[in-house]
Amino acid sequence: MAIATINPTTGETIKVFDSLTDEEIAHKLALGQTAFQQYRYTSFLERSHWLQQAATILDQEKTEFAQLLTLEMGKPLKAAIAEVEKCAVVCRYYAENAADFLADVTVKTDASHSFIKYQPLGIILAVMPWNFPFWQVFRFAAPALMAGNVGLLKHASNVPQSALAIEDIFHRAGFPVGVFQTLLIGAGKVADLIADDRVKAATLTGSEPAGASLAAAAGKQIKKTVLELGGSDPFIVLESADLETAVNTAVTARMLNNGQSCIAAKRFIIAESIADQFEKLLLAKFQSLKVGDPMQPDTDIGPLATPDILQDLDQQVKIAVKSGGKILTGGYALSDGAGNFYPPTIIIDVPPVHPIAKEEFFGPVALLFRVADIDAAIKLANDIPFGLGASAWTNNQQECDRLIQEIEAGAVFINGMVKSDPRLPFGGIKRSGYGRELSIQGIHEFVNVKTVWVK
């Protein structure tokens, strides 16, 4: 895949980049290693100042950055602005809290003094996706850099300008040269990077195949990895729920980022007693959404990021229909003009046992399922290989307790949309990956948890 900015709204190739040569990669690795030897001894106060500066740059230039995100991957501009603002939030969160998160912890033992010390590992490789070009990177970089590590970013090949912009932000914020570097390279170079002794660990957000490949390469080298992979999150609505609020949230939860989000609600599991009403309300709202130029402020749904994603989604919908599903709205790629556009789509009656019902639809497509009761809802919610997030709606406390206890996911949101928050750990189970980002758990992923015992 070429490293290039290709406008998904028009199909126009904006800018093409050469992949780094082996010599250039070697230079960046050497630069990162040299930087770490000094950066690891900088104080939390220094790192915090630089990260606060990065947050200031993000806030001050959020519109320009957002336009770049929209240009490269097609998300509505208003959503892109919100993404950049959230990156500033996560920078400030770790700038303000990292020192406490990584402070020595005294433990009473038979020693005169015993404690736990957290120390940086070195170069951390981040393999990041295109769907949230800034957020995915900053939620890794903010804790990693505050812990004293240095970062190498291998970003998705269709967002190279975003990748370079992030490196420039850290540079302008005052971080020492080499502490954060972008590598414009193809996926074929990742295994060699992981094999290099200077790279101590890796994190990846992306597809299952990409995660499996990275984990296998790291496993051969006995290196730590954190993986955040796909999801087919359930959105459960039971009879006692506030139906209007649930429907309004369902639209946002499915259409976030043009439907291209790992934690987007994808399977809507509705109690039979309210299913007709839910379906009617959701259909009306889907049909009212405006598909078009993501740079325009009134656009709700922009294009999918690449033609391949559009083709894959269209094929999945065709399989769903062939399996017995019925389309209530949408269900076809928009062909009038250039761009990777797919309309908001609702599919009902897909047999839950069919393999297509267990796949992740990465675009504005909602699958609706009807269930008799909470037992059936929980069973259907768990009957997939994924376990990233789940949203469930009820005003019955016993149902709430069961949903929290029994749903198999890294996050369960009751009466709210699944979202990432710097204050809460984020990650999945099963084939959605392992490890956690954000919160105190996220910053502890890439440190040496050192036991110290002194007599």
Structure description:
With 455 residues, the protein is of the alpha/beta class. It contains 14 helices and 20 strands. The chain has helices at residues 22-39, 44-60, 62-73, 77-101, 135-146, 160-173, 190-195, 208-220, 243-255, 272-288, 307-322, 374-382, 397-406, 439-444, and strands at 4-6, 13-16, 105-106, 113-120, 123-127, 150-154, 180-182, 199-205, 224-228, 233-237, 265-271, 326-329, 345-348, 365-371, 386-387, 389-393, 411-414, 429-430, 433-434, 447-454. The strands form five sheets. Strands 12-13-14-11-10-16-17 form a seven-stranded mixed β-sheet, with helices on both faces. Strands 7-6-5-8-9-19 form a six-stranded mixed β-sheet, sandwiched between helices. The longest helix has 25 residues, at 77-101. The protein is globular, with a radius of gyration of 23 Å. The termini are far apart. 51% of the residues are buried. The model has no long low-confidence stretch (mean pLDDT 97). One of its GO terms (molecular function) is succinate-semialdehyde dehydrogenase (NAD+) activity. Residues 3-452 form the Aldehyde dehydrogenase domain. This is Aldehyde Dehydrogenase.
